[in-house]
Structures are given as structure tokens and as C-alpha cells.
Specification:
By secondary structure, the protein is mostly beta strands. It contains two helices and ten strands, in the order αβββββββββαβ. Helix content is 6%, strand content 37%. The strands form two sheets. Strands 1-2-8-4-5 form a five-stranded antiparallel beta sheet, with no helix packed on it. It has a five-stranded antiparallel beta sheet with strand order 6-7-3-9-10, with no helix packed on it. A hairpin with a 2-residue loop joins strand 6 (106-108) and strand 7. It is elongated and about 60 Å long.
């Protein structure tokens, strides 16, 4: 929720225990906080996984073949690469992903975010060449449409003229991993 000039409707503010200060949507989001936050019970959802299928040492580093999947059968997702300069090449299901700012990847500070507009139930095969031997930090994210059960009270109290922004109500689950 993002308060505007007139703030949130009273019924909506009374439906949950909103934080006093505004926050960013994700830990990697930049800029000042713009969103209200409600603490809730943990979702209990299993986060996305990256199962290494094969790893080979190469002259400049490693080649990693893995399967990125969403145990909760999410509709969409993202692969956030924390040190993209170390990536020599990245292919998702055989498609080469250009990590420069553009259609397939978004730059946020030193990160590259590769959005997955669909997330097939069988997962996405990842093939990447990484410079160096040290682990590469990644954040795996999946997204489903709608709010989790803990958001039902807020959704019920939302007046018809108050609408979610951008892509609507979403539930995100993410985890960090190193490979």
C-alpha cells in the first residue's frame, strides 16, 4: 500500500497494523521507501530452488548447468545476479540472455535482474559461464497473482475505488543462494 495525498481510507488502515515508516518493496530496490508495510505470519511457502545439474571447471572459471524451479508453481519470477560482471554467458532454456540494460535484464545499482514473465511448471534450464572460482551470489524470486491468506482482511476492506498499482496484488517469495 502506498499512501497518497489523502492517505489510505480509514477502513483499510484499521484492517491491519501498518508500519509507521514507509519501506521499499524489495531489499534491492533503490530510492526512498514509498510503501506501507503490514507484518503478518510467515507465509510458509517453499522458495524457488536452483538445482545444479552439472558443473565443469573451465579456463576462466566455471560452467554451471542448473534447473531453476518454483515448488509453489508460481506464474512469474526473476533471477537477480549480484555480480553480473562475472557472467561470461547466460542461457535460459537455450535462449541467450543479454545482461546489458535492455529488454531481458534490468540494472539496479550493481545488480542485474532478469525477469521471467512465465515460469513453466517443469522449471527453467539455466546454463551460465562464470568467471572465477568463488561462489556467485544470486537471488531467486517467484511471484503469484493475488494476496496470501494473511492479506484477506486488507483486501476485504479495500474500497472499490482503491486499486492495487502496477501489476495488481502479488505474492513474492525469494531466497539468496550462491553457486
Amino acid at each position: 500500500a502506498r499512501p497518497g495525498r489523502r492517505g489510505l481510507p480509514v477502513a483499510l488502515t484499521d484492517a491491519a497494523d501498518w508500519s509507521e515508516e514507509l519501506t521499499t518493496l524489495f531489499p534491492w530496490s533503490r530510492g526512498p521507501g514509498r510503501y506501507g508495510k503490514v507484518q503478518s505470519e510467515p507465509l510458509g511457502a517453499v522458495p524457488p530452488t536452483l538445482e545444479v545439474l552439472d558443473q565443469q571447471d573451465e579456463t576462466t572459471g566455471r560452467r554451471i548447468r542448473a534447473l531453476l524451479s518454483s515448488p509453489r508453481s508460481a506464474d512469474q519470477g526473476a533471477l537477480i545476479i549480484h555480480d553480473p560482471a562475472r557472467i561470461e554467458s547466460l542461457h535460459l532454456d537455450g535462449w541467450e540472455i543479454e545482461l546489458a540494460q535492455g529488454e531481458t535484464a534490468t540494472q539496479v545499482d550493481a545488480l542485474r535482474i532478469v525477469r521471467l514473465m512465465t515460469f513453466p511448471s517443469e522449471g527453467i534450464r539455466l546454463d551460465m559461464r562464470v568467471r572465477g572460482e568463488q561462489p556467485l551470489e544470486l537471488t531467486l524470486l517467484d511471484a503469484t497473482f493475488g494476496l496470501p491468506p494473511a492479506g484477506a482482511a486488507v483486501a476485504r476492506m479495500r474500497p472499490i475505488h482503491v486499486v492495487p498499482i502496477d501489476e495488481g496484488d502479488r505474492t513474492f517469495v525469494f531466497t539468496k543462494t550462491s553457486r
